[in-house]
Amino acid sequence: MQKIQTQGLHHITLNGADRQTSIDFWEGLLGMPFLFEQPNLDAPDINHLYFDPGDGRLITVFTDESRKKDPAPTPNDVGTVHHIAFSVSRVVFNQIAQRLEERGIPNSGHKDRGFMDSFYFRDPLGHLIELACYKFEPPDGFTHAMVLAEAHNIRVARGDPSINDVHLADAIEDLVRRSQPSLSANRGPKQPY
Question: Which residues form the VOC domain (predicted)?
Fold first, then answer.
């Protein structure tokens, strides 16, 4: 028996309401280009919209003009989606509160998650949306996930409850030390003054 190895998220498809609500939210609020549309190939009376969330992958939405938006929170039961998180740059993150306020969209306000900062709000269909910004950039050749896995190991070894700035900084230093050679026999910290 062998695994079926994945190589990244391909797309997420949501059941939407009418076409314009989806376009106004995904492109008009979140800036995701509306790439194309076609009928749902399994149910031709349903429309299928495709948006680029910024990484070339896809968010797709099934729409039907007979369905109306309902902002009531989606169920939080076992097996349901709790929230969908999208990455934003620091400069965009710093503008989120103002841009949501301009539209009268209730939100969580800034949430410090230790290794990232977040805002939460609901889309017009009640899905919980998170806009997140990492507090760090991984070194060349590494991903955010690799830094977080290393920071987790450091956090656990130190008995700390959650990842914070010092774990991230130490993880980045450890990854660089292990991956890049140096002519120095001792690569430890020094006091040059």
Answer: 8-134
